[in-house]
Amino acid sequence: MTALGAFVAFLDVTIVNIAFPAITSEFSGSSLADLSWVITAYNIVFAALLIPAGRLADQLGHRRVFLAGLTLFGLASAACAWAPNVPVLVAARVVQAVAAAAIAPSSLALLLPAFPPERRGAAVGMWGATSAVAAATGPALGGLLVDALGWRSVFFVNVPLVVVVVLAGRVLLTESRDSRAGIPDLVSVGLLGLGVAMLSLGIVNGEGGAWTSLGVAGPLVLGVALLGGFVLRSMRVSNPLVELGLFRLRAFAGATVGYFVFSSAFFALLLANVLFLTGVWQVDVLLAGLAVTPGPIMAAVSSVVGGRLVDRFGLRAVVLPGGLLFAAGCTIFATAIGPEPHYLTAFLPATLLTGIGVGSIFSGLSAAAVAQLPPARYATGSAVGNCARQIGAVLGIALLLSWLGTAGPDADAFRTAWAVMALGGVGAAICGVVVGAARAAVTLSSAPALRAGSGKPLS
Fold it and tell me: What is the overall mean pLDDT for the chain?
């Protein structure tokens, strides 16, 4: 149930992409720059608020924040579906992102205590793959909905899912929180939120290729400066938003880097495959969505298997091979696919391999992100990982669009892009080595995290 809530939040990261042409057509009087905020605003706000929302859930209660976030998300989705103009649609998308930031970290924090230690790896694996499966399902589901019911249906589809989860959650979920937590440093909240927002904005503005322009370099420099200020502030206050000592935990640090590196490749791959199918092979949007569907199916299967393997063999045994499989699939894309359609012999095998890799990597990284954390920091740890994932996604998509805008969207340009994405899989595999062979079943319940510079346990 909590995984379904997270699925809804992550689904809206990509499902709107496939509906964007239809939205553009209906609001033809608006500029493309204004319309692009329908997608951009969600990604930026989601990334900026994940960590503050995770800490808020640790303090106020995971069940309370989860259900409140879902309710707000359902209302915002209905507002998106009924939006009469672009400003209302963008504003509703911002509210959606605020709600999604509350849902994602609190859902994992609710899930973990419900499982005994020896089964937590499988539970985290299933939850961790929801972002991958939701993101990969977005184009196919969005294509079906837009083709049959129009673009507003991609927002309406959220409402019944939210109603089911909220009603069931009120009955089945139990509250959990860090009763000793005080209010986190509000200056740190502002520095981190604005820093991530500026960094994301600069990356998004770089999609046109003008990376040295004021509109790109300015937000990037400001974002880095704000994040640097956040780190300095966190070292000096008694109740920081994120304890820097968490990054001394090998599994947590490796997972955070892994999320960023791999997500930049994974989300770029999702967009690249749809653009290639519709642009180079001239496949219509509905068939393109169906063509990439085997990937999320394999991700769902491998995430379940990966979680069980974490319980038995440790984190490295899942993340390392998953990264290599993803890299192998991207290599097939880069070397075996050209202007002439060869779906069954080239595209499908590559999609299956990358799908297996995605499920394995995300299940392993999700387990690694919380493996050495005390229960009071499950939501915060999950939020840090998902923030890194979201920034990586924004960067990967921006670099892809910048490259295609420069090189031209032909088969050769896509092959080069796929080759670079393979490096993301290799990077994930290296992070699998870093997180080590720790088993979530042992460390989730036993290993204390330390405050930066204090040597005191978090709980």
Answer: 82
Select from 218, 216, 198, 199 the least CA-distant residue to 207.
Answer: 216
Residue 284 CA to residue 319 CA, distance in Å, equals 35
Q: What is residue 283's three-state secondary structure?
A: coil
DSSP 14: T
Using alpha carbons, select from 300, 261, 28 the residue that is nearest to residue 140.
300
- Over residues 17-41, the mean pLDDT reads 80
How far CA 302 is from CA of 49, 141, 306, 431, in Å, comes to: 30, 21, 6, 19
Tell me if 350 sits within 8 A of 337, measured CB to CB.
yes
Helical packing angle, 348-371 and 411-435, nearest 10° = 30
| Distance from the Cα of residue 186 to its chain's centroid | 25
The torsion region of residue 351 among left (phi > 0), alpha (psi -120 to 50) and beta comes to alpha
Q: What is the pTM of this model?
A: 0.81
Residue ranges of the alpha helices (H) in 112-179? 120-149, 153-156, 158-172
Q: Report the C-alpha gap between 62 and 68 in whole angstroms.
A: 10
Q: Kindly state the helix (H) or strand (E) to which residue 277 belongs, with its residue range.
A: helix 250-279
Residue 181 banded pLDDT, cuts 50, 70, 90: low
> What is residue 9's predicted lDDT score, i.e. its pLDDT?
77
Element (H, E) at 233: helix 214-234
Instruction: Give, rounded to a whole angstrom, the gap between the first and last alpha carbons of the chain.
Output: 27
